[in-house]
Amino acid sequence: MIQFIRKTKKCNKVTTTLTLTWPQRTRSRQRVRLDNGEEAGLFLERGTILRGGDCLVSDADIVVKVLAAEETVSTVSCNDPLELARICYHLGNRHVALEIRDQQVRYPHDHVLDAMLESMGLTAVITQAPFEPETGAYSEGHVHSHG
Predict the structure, then answer these.
(1) Which strands sit side by side in the sheet containing 124-130, from one edge to the other?
(2) Do 64 and 84 sit in the same domain of this protein?
(3) Interhelix angle for 111-119 vs 81-92, to 10°?
(4) Are 98 and 107 in contact (CB under 8 A)?
(5) Are 84 and 60 in the same domain?
(6) How confident is the model at residue 42, as a pLDDT?
(7) Fewer beta carbons within 10 angstroms: which end of the chain, N or C?
(8) Domain encompassing residue 13
(9) Which one, of 17, 9, 21, lies nearest residue 132 by Cα?
(10) Taking a C-beta distance cutoff of 8 angstroms, is the pair 129, 70 a contact?
């Protein structure tokens, strides 16, 4: 079994791809099936978060490109920045993972949340799409120091 041990942004000599959902892209240790059908294992540094477009390198220097799988998501569009902030506040207050886009917010589909937003006069559109949510201020890639 191929063992992927590190993430890189340099995608030289990609062998195949690995399509994962958002929950799968937040797990650093797991068994996966590459898009070419081969079994592999992720043995990444704890806390590693994968994004669509990242590449993984195996202990044998095999490189695969990570793709964000399509998932069932709800998308709310809004032209008013204040209203968009209000939407994000109410969803974030429920600890929902959010992908904040230009004039849109996307979250894992949940009919209760859709109904809440509809009560605010908004429409949630349910689609299949890749999901790339914000990871938070203390997640990988953000610097935090107390000097």
Answers:
(1) 99-101, 104-108, 70-77, 124-130
(2) no
(3) 140
(4) yes
(5) no
(6) 98
(7) C
(8) 2-68
(9) 21
(10) yes
Q: How many domains does the chain have?
A: 2
pLDDT digits (tens, 9 = 90+) for 43-85: 999 999 999 999 999 999 999 999 999 999 999 999 999 999 9
d(C-alpha 28, C-alpha 47), whole Å: 6
Provide the pLDDT for residue 147: 42
Say if residue 53 is in the same domain as residue 7: yes
Residue with tokens 């892209």: 25
Which of 12, 22, 64 lies closest to 42 in space, CA to CA? 64
Angle at Cα 97 formed by Cα 94 and Cα 80, nearest 5°? 80
State the pTM of this model: 0.85
Q: Which residue bears the tokens 């942004």?
A: 9
Burial class (CB in 10 A: 0-12, 13-18, 19+), 45: exposed
37: tokens are 């059908």
**CA-closest candidate to residue 108, choices 84, 87, 124, 85:** 124
Does residue 115 share a domain with residue 74?
Answer: yes
Shared domain check, 78 and 52? no
- Which pair of structure tokens corresponds to residue 10? 């340099």
Cα–Cα distance for residue pair 140/15, rounded to 1 Å: 26
**Tokens 């990871």 belong to which residue?**
135
